[in-house]
């Protein structure tokens, strides 16, 4: 495949489970005719959502084909089905293959002359490797992972060039829980005032001081498999407290936030990450599987506890594979000062792209063939059905519950929680004022159309200054970087008080939109102009102590013919059963399976990170543990002539590395952060497919100090200790980056 097709390259993730020899496992019936799925509704074992198999009755064909995880469970479904054997027990892959698998087309000529998979991957806690020459799995060891108290050799030989085993960390140090203070918390003690924020304002440095509210807010989140129909078409999904998106978590600047997360899913490990929360000295609460915790096993609960040192709007989401994009996410709002006045908080507007089959089921094709076209976009989990047919429910547009009253000003919080899509937001006929970018209040600026990339948030104030009427608000998908069938019909509705209250016929704003020359609108994937994003709290950036440069590449020349993203030649790999923080706590070592994608930094230093790529595709880059400074971004390579803005540059936690498919331009992004937060912090592209395909790295910040910052090392150990035997029993195998 040539680079010209890469702009559409997408990927996903699979969870691979070892086949069982039983026809009954996990309460699911296995097909007897080699056709997983089918009219009797038999399902695969341990598939991502429980029934990844084709409704047409074959593994991997039709509109509801399997995810790759399932297919691999069934043995890779090699191209030997014609005239060859199909499994008697429905579990193709031991020594026979299933019919007509999609995977047939993807494993390449490497496998056509070889016998199919001979041994199931990781059946008993041994390791499995995908041979880079044959494209097939073989077991390499059978050393059993018995219990978490043993010292297992749990070698994860994932694809991506990892060839040797990695000894899993074991407990060599007794775990400990820091005693909690018994002193009574005195509200606003030693602080300049006694108001809601103890006299602290938008001009105070929230990285250095937070209101001592003595307030705790507590939530419980229950993660489940579910069926949702956000646009009238039902499909399997993952839900938080039975909702999609999950419930709003609200706190105020300075509060202690306590969230009890329960994994009630049956086949998935999980975690919850609190996007943008700095987790200052609370690294173990960052919720990144393989970095700050092991996967939380089904049936287990874990309590996250952190202080809301930042304020503004954000979201929480699973940080294990593609779960966030199946529905494991929700909004999070930390109240704090604003940089402009408003009358009414009109609530949030969450935009995400949406497909009528689970993204996990799109994994196979996305990974090998590029372009995925999503079906639509949802605003706060709602939209009308773009492919409504007779008898098909049509869904519903989101309507802002607050009616506009002329002369009043309305605050909105915006979030892009898409897997692949970049949007432009606007309200027909209206302009608005932007007052915050991510968790950073900015000098207010006015615009009519706002670019919002994945993971980014903006707070805006809209004045009701138009004729009383009904107006669309819109998130136009920018097809230049990722396509959506319904790209121009992702709309919500605003009614003015006294308006007819009907479906609007308002006119869309016009803005420059590239087309493809044959009538197709491509638009532009970009960030807001950097010059517009001026933080209220001014900070300057010093010369770097350390510069990290990463050339980003994508390749399928890895013997498996599946695309992976590479940073300087290495694709990222985490291990759900051996988190980096666990290794540091117990062995003071950093796992080596990430190759050179674990970068150590000392404390008290400025680190510059340069990310550049010739591939004409943009990437929203997110860093955990910090708001970073955006020093430069542009098309083409970074060079000595690239001007760096060190004087109060934009500060946020997601920034877009430009890239443009239509014009074939790659780009660069230069960010900086100050190492003041000991911990293990992920930096990654927030395109779901890309991070799953290895576009990630971890910073090990102040390694010597990390252990002493962890309040409860027993918690870290316990989560790993419960995950390992569960994963062993189920034969869970990570076949992508894991994050
Ligand atoms: Cu990317």
Automatic annotation (TrEMBL):
- CDD domains in the cross-refs: ChtBD1_1 (cd11618), CuRO_2_MaLCC_like (cd13880), CuRO_3_MaLCC_like (cd13901)
**Which InterPro entries does this UniProt record tie to the protein?**
Chitin-bd_1, Cu-oxidase-like_N, Cu-oxidase_2nd, Cu-oxidase_C, Cu-oxidase_fam, Cupredoxin, Endochitinase-like_sf
Give all residue intervals belonging to the Chitin-binding type-1 domain. 33-79
For this UniProt record, the keywords arranged alphabetically read as follows: Chitin-binding, Copper, Disulfide bond, Glycoprotein, Metal-binding, Oxidoreductase, Repeat, Signal
Question: Does Oxidoreductase appear among the keywords?
Answer: yes
SUPFAM superfamilies reported for this sequence: Cupredoxins, Plant lectins/antimicrobial peptides
Q: Which GO terms describe its molecular function?
A: chitin binding; copper ion binding; oxidoreductase activity
Q: Which cysteines are joined by disulfide bonds?
A: 52-66
**Highest taxon of source:** Eukaryota
> Signal peptide location in the record?
1-17
An example Pfam family from this entry, by short name, is: Cu-oxidase_2
Q: Which family does it belong to?
A: Belongs to the multicopper oxidase family.
Q: What is this protein called?
A: Chitin-binding type-1 domain-containing protein
